[in-house]
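step=encode ok
step=design start
structure_in=
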């Protein structure tokens, strides 16, 4: 699963001040499943997406909109690499 999607789930969860255990309880998934979703190692099935959306009170479109916004955020690691390249070229 894409890292941006996992970051989206983590971000939405943290906005609610929920732990992974809280989200697991709200979705009926295990805490390890939530962890795998957030770290980007697992792409959710449709049913999992629906559970996550229901927990956050979002539609699937809204969830993907959040993920799209996450993709637009600058990646700090990449920006640091670009800055390093610029410094080396000066």
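sequence_out=
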């Amino acid at each position: 699963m894409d890292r941006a999607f996992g970051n989206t789930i983590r971000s939405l969860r943290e906005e609610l001040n929920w732990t992974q255990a809280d989200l697991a309880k709200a979705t009926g998934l295990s805490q390890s499943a939530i962890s795998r979703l957030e770290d980007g190692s697992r792409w959710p099935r449709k049913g999992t997406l629906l559970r996550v959306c229901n927990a956050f009170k979002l539609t699937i479109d809204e969830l993907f909109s959040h993920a799209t916004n996450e993709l637009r955020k600058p990646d700090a690691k990449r920006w640091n690499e670009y800055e390093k390249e610029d410094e080396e070229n000066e």
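step=design ok
step=annotate ok -> Helices lie at 3-15, 20-27, 31-38, 46-56, 60-72, 76-89.
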